[in-house]
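Shift notes (night). Ran Ribosomal protein S8 while the centrifuge was going.
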Amino acid sequence: MKNHFWNMFTNVRNGQLAKRSFIYQKKIILCEAFLKILWDEGFIVGYKISKKNNDLIKIFLKYTYDGKPTINCMKLVTKPGRRVSYSIKQIWKIDSSKNFIIFSTNKGLKTINDCKRLKIGGEPFILIN
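Came back to this:
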């Protein structure tokens, strides 16, 4: 199984290090759900399906006024060799003001604040500082 999330995270990180305004990523449903969360939370400017190739997504990267990327650090918490799952009690112990975590739940990809509001646990995919 290919880890498409890892490839997308690496592409975003490398694109921001190279000061690119946009990057291309292979179109996958889970990656689109992840991009929608990043867009809703203000980490990227936006994304759209490429006109030339319907299998690619064009991701527009966001920077601060002084040219620094909005995403400082992106870490993959759950890996194929090491699965981690948090209950709702464990999620409540995490400080959501310092870390932004995206969870894979039975209701789809949710942010840490959505998991607390809906009172559901899940598998943490990504940690953004």
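The radius of gyration is 15 Å. Strands lie at 22-26, 44-49, 56-61, 74-76, 100-105, 108-111, 123-128.
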